[in-house]
Design brief:
Blueprint lengths: L2 H45 L1 H35 L5 E5 L5 H13 L3 E7 L1 H12 L2 H4 L10 E6 L2 H5 L2 H10 L4 E6 L2 H42 L1 H9 L4 H44 L11 H26 L7
Antiparallel strand pairs: 1-3, 1-4, 2-3
Length: 331
C-alpha cells in the first residue's frame, strides 16, 4: 500500500517534467521556425536579383530623398553655427568721439541688465582687423587717415532676451545718443535663418511622410504579387492545418528584408551625394575664409534609416497579407 503513493508521486513528477519539456521544445521550435523563415525569405529575395534590385532601388530612393534633405538642414545649421550664432548689436561711434565719453557709455551699458558683454574696438584695431580679413593690406597703407570709426559690440545674455525685444529697445535708445553714428542689429539674419530652418524641417517631415506612404504601397504591391505566385502553396499549407499566422510569417520577413536592405542602400546614396559635393562646398567656404566641411550621415542616421525601412517594410507586408490571406481558403 505504501508503494502506491510513491508510484503516483513519481508519475506526477514525470508528468510535470514532461510538460515543462514540451513547453521548452515548443518555444525552441517557434524560434527555429522564425530563423528558418528569415533565412528562406532572404534566400528567396536573392534568388531573383533583378526584381529584388528594382524594388530595393525604389525603396532606397524614397528613403534617401528625405534623408538628403535632413542632412542638408543639419549642414546649414552647422554652417550658421560656424559663422556666428550670437544675436549681437554693432554700435558705430562717431569718429571724433572722446575716449572718456566712450568709457562712460560702456560703464552705463555694462551696469544695465540683459547684456553679457560690451566689447570696445578702437579705430586702429578696426583697421588692423580689416587689413587682415580683406587682403587689401598694401592698398590701405596708401590712405592718408583711418576712415573706420570706433565700434562697440553688444552681446545679449541669451537669444531669448533678444527675441523678447530687448535689443530692439536698446537700439532705439542708442540711436538717440550723440556719440552714436549708427546701430546695426546683427540678429535679423539669424532670425530669418531660423525661420528657414523651421520651414525646412517641416518640409523634410512632409516629404518623409509622403515617400513613406509610397514605400508602403510598393511593399504592398510586391508582397501581393508574392502571395499570388504562392497561392497553391498557401492552399496546401492551410489544408494540412497551417494557421494564418504560420502562413503570414515568411511574407512579413520578406517585407522586413526589403525595408532593411533598402534603408542600407539609402544610407549609401546619401553618403554618395555628400561625397560628390563635399569638395566644391569646402572650396566655396574657403573663399569666405571659413573652414566648413560637409557633415555626412553617421551611425545614428544609419540606424534611423534601417529602423524606418524595416518598419515600413513590415507594415506594407502586413497590410497586403491581411487584405489577401483571408481570401485564400481551401474549398
Amino acid at each position: 500500500m505504501r508503494a502506491e503513493p510513491a508510484a503516483k508521486a513519481r508519475e506526477q513528477k514525470s508528468g510535470a517534467t514532461g510538460s515543462r519539456t514540451s513547453l521548452a521544445q515548443r518555444f525552441r521550435a517557434y524560434l527555429g521556425h522564425h530563423r528558418q523563415n528569415a533565412r528562406d525569405s532572404l534566400l528567396r529575395l536573392l534568388s531573383a536579383p533583378v526584381q529584388s534590385a528594382m524594388t530595393l532601388l525604389v525603396i532606397a530612393i524614397a528613403l534617401a530623398l528625405p534623408g538628403m534633405l535632413y542632412m542638408g538642414v543639419i549642414n546649414i545649421q552647422a554652417l550658421s553655427g560656424s559663422i556666428d550664432t550670437s544675436a549681437r548689436m554693432t554700435v558705430f561711434l562717431q569718429p571724433d568721439a572722446d575716449k572718456a565719453d566712450i568709457d562712460a557709455l560702456m560703464s552705463r551699458l555694462q551696469a544695465g541688465t540683459g547684456l553679457a558683454s560690451v566689447t570696445y574696438i578702437s579705430r586702429d584695431q578696426a583697421l588692423e582687423q580689416f587689413r587682415e580679413s580683406s587682403g587689401f593690406g598694401e592698398v590701405l597703407t596708401l590712405l592718408d587717415e583711418n576712415p573706420l570709426p570706433p565700434v562697440l559690440i553688444l552681446e545679449p545674455e541669451s537669444i531669448a532676451d533678444a527675441d523678447a525685444g530687448f535689443l530692439e529697445t536698446l537700439q532705439g535708445e542708442l540711436e538717440t545718443n550723440p556719440l552714436v553714428d549708427d546701430v546695426v542689429l546683427d540678429m535679423r539674419w539669424l532670425q530669418r535663418l531660423q525661420g528657414l530652418m523651421a520651414i525646412s524641417q517641416r518640409l523634410v517631415l512632409a516629404m518623409a511622410a509622403i515617400l513613406g506612404l509610397g514605400v508602403l504601397l510598393v511593399m504592398g504591391n510586391t508582397i501581393r504579387l508574392a502571395i499570388e505566385n504562392r497561392r497553391e502553396e498557401i492552399l496546401v499549407v492551410k489544408l494540412i492545418g497551417g494557421t494564418n499566422g504560420y502562413v503570414r510569417r515568411p511574407f512579413l520577413y520578406s517585407g522586413f528584408w526589403f525595408g532593411l536592405l533598402g534603408g542600407l542602400l539609402a544610407w549609401l546614396m546619401v553618403w554618395a551625394g555628400i561625397f560628390l559635393i563635399r569638395e566644391p562646398v569646402a572650396g566655396l567656404a574657403s573663399l569666405y575664409q571659413n573652414p566648413f566641411s560637409l557633415i555626412g550621415p553617421d551611425l545614428r542616421q544609419l540606424s534611423l534609416l534601417l529602423a524606418v525601412g524595416a518598419l515600413l517594410g513590415l507594415a506594407g507586408s502586413w497590410l497586403a497579407v491581411a487584405q489577401l490571406l483571408h481570401k485564400i481558403e481551401p474549398e
